[in-house]
Every structure is written in C-alpha cells, then in structure tokens.
Write a structure and sequence with these properties.
The chain is mainly α. It has helices at about 5-20, 20-35, 40-50, 55-75, 75-90, 95-105, 110-115, 130-140, 145-155, 160-175, 180-190, 195-210. It has a domain at about 110-215: Tetratricopeptide repeat domain (Serine Threonine Protein Phosphatase 5, Tetratricopeptide repeat, Alpha Horseshoe), CATH 1.25.40.10. The protein is built from 12 helices and no strands. The longest helix has 17 residues, at about 55-75. Keywords: TPR repeat. This is Tetratricopeptide repeat protein.
Length: about 220
Amino acid sequence: MIADDPDGAQERAEDWARHGGADSAARCGALADVALGDPEAGARALDAASHEAALPAPRRALLAAEASRAWLLASRPDRALESSGLAATLDRSPDYRIDHARAALAAHQPELAIADLSPLLTGPPLRADALIVRATALREAGAFERARADIDAACQLRPDDPDALLERGILRERTGDLDGARDDWSRVIAASPDTHEADLAQQDLALLEAGPEAR
C-alpha cells in the first residue's frame, strides 16, 4: 500500500504493531513515514529495529540498509554512513557495499567510496551501478582519467542509464568537452522526463549555457 496509499499503510502498520507485528510492522510504518515526507522519522525507526540483537543478521542488514537510504533523504550522510556500515558488516552483499559507498560520497569522503567499490570491480561481471558511483568518487578525488574509464564502461553496460549519462556529462564538462556534456544531459531529459535526474540535467545544461562565470 505504501506507493499508492501511505497514510493507509501507516494505519495498518500501527494496527499490526498492536497485534504482534514486531519488526515487520515497525519496518512498514517506517517506510510509510519516508513515503509521507518524514524520512528522518523513518530512518530512526529503521535504525532502532536494525539494532535488535535477537533478529537474524540478514534481517538486521536489510533494516540498516533501508535506514541508510532514509538518512540520505533526510540529508544526514553521517548517520547514513553508520547505518550502511552496519549493513555491510552484517551481510557481505555487494548491494550493501554500494550503499556504504554512496553514503561516503554524500559525506564528502570519496576515498572511502573508492575503497568500498574497488574490490567489487576487479573483473567481470562488472556492475554498472558500482562503476557509476566509483566514477563519481574518482572525479571528486581529482582522478579524471580513471573516472572516465569507469563511466565509459558503465555507459557500455547501460547506454541509456540516466545516472551514467549525468556523470559522463559532468566529466565531459570538467575536461572541456562541452558539446559532449550537452549531448549527455539532453539525452537524460529526453529519455527520463519528469524525473529527479532530468531536473539535475536541466540545471547542468542551464549552467553550461550561462557560461564559465556561472559554472
């Protein structure tokens, strides 16, 4: 119900909690909080549930990872880093390592993000999402050539991925390929209209057209 009726989902979660729903009810209520625009409340509830020692490790890891994503929505990268670190400790899934890298980027720690992702990218099959995040981290660390190699590989795997095109556009703009940047950002807007990625691409394009003084 969360996607279509978060208020109704929250009411059901509260009723479920009163009838023994335990961590499952708490999780649903927390995710409803996020959907209703209160990611910090959701993150706190998910965080609390992830520290229940009686729960199996995979369950705690899931709750911690969801807490991390909610903390990012609440603009608390410090807390997101803690939660994603717990998830990655409890479960060695690459998804949780990528979550930790995203939190590290949000916390302005690109070197930590690179360290998280490099073990996942030692050989095939390569994950496009890991390549995109590491490319961003490498760019923020000033390693433009390595970043470009990662983002080119990601674009080969997912030619129309809006996140990959956004990042490649940024790298192209930073290295003087303004036409290439314009092309990538225009593709994001055309392929993924009315999305957060399209909004970011539109902002980047506006700055590009405004000239170097605005960038």
